[in-house]
Input
Amino acid sequence: MTIVLALETSCDETAVALVAGRHVLANVVASQVASHAPYGGVVPELAARRHVELLPHLVDRAFGEAGITWTQVKAVAATATPGLVGALLVGLTAGKTMALLHGKPFLAVHHLEGHLCSAQLTGGPPLKPPFLVLLVSGGHTQLVRVDGPGAYRLCGATVDDAAGEAFDKVARLLGLGYPGGPAIEAVAARGGDPRRFAFPQGRVGRRGGGYEPYAFSFSGLKTAVLRCIEALQRQGEPLPVADLAASFQYTVAEALSSRTVGCALDQGLSQLVVVGGVAANRRLRQALEQRRREAGLTLVMAPLAFCGDNAAMIGVAAGQRLASGCQSPLTIGVSPRLPLHEAKRLYDPHPPF
Output
């Protein structure tokens, strides 16, 4: 049994996990939401300091929950890209240090590859490629074709705001809390009418005319909500926050689900996989379930516990790379952004960063 100790510190979640294949022995996450909520978003320097404070305690807690010792750990992994540089540095430095001290192989993991692997944690049979993944989180909205471990092809992505960013910005416009996704979902559930306001789904043009069928754009949607709020305020009406939240959420779910299913059909793929923090949204799950049934596709969704940033998904990704003979040099650094299809560069003996 190959046990991997994994660390995740790419943004504002401090997480540690011990994973054996697709079996999670321990998965502990310390949220920093309360620390960043007064600022309406993540403060990079504050996030990095909190990672430094929290990591040692979470490592101890993970070993306690798993009931194992260092002698049973085969490798150490940490997220190296993409993310906030200061936050990434904390986890990567801690991971490399522990690997060196205990004589274990070290693996630098791509955060998005971790999200792709989170769907392996359902407890069901392993996913068999090829399949299409909708990766939708706070900072990323992508459609990725997976043809095998490490074999990724980008089929569509947002050209501006990610869906999670749009949720945060609209929540701010509506005077709701941070993070915006759970806040909007909670308000919309209080009798909000998802069809009261018809917001645009954001078709994306390209040079030479026509549209990119599987690209996403949420910046215009955010602006449409703002203009609607301003118009209602000029009329002196009470702001129908629940209806606005429900209509916005409905529009995002329709845009994501329609293009995801359309892309899968065009790619000749019968299996959809949905991962990332926004994948926890109930309206999105309902929309995807309805469209996949109509199209005759199968659908696998990451468990709710592993939709947000967590270290278990990093451990699964690291375990797969380790099984294929990969290992990262201890000289490797972090990168704020690295395309998913270039994740193999993390295991180059001469890393570019």
Summary: The chain has two domains: 3-117+308-347, 129-306.
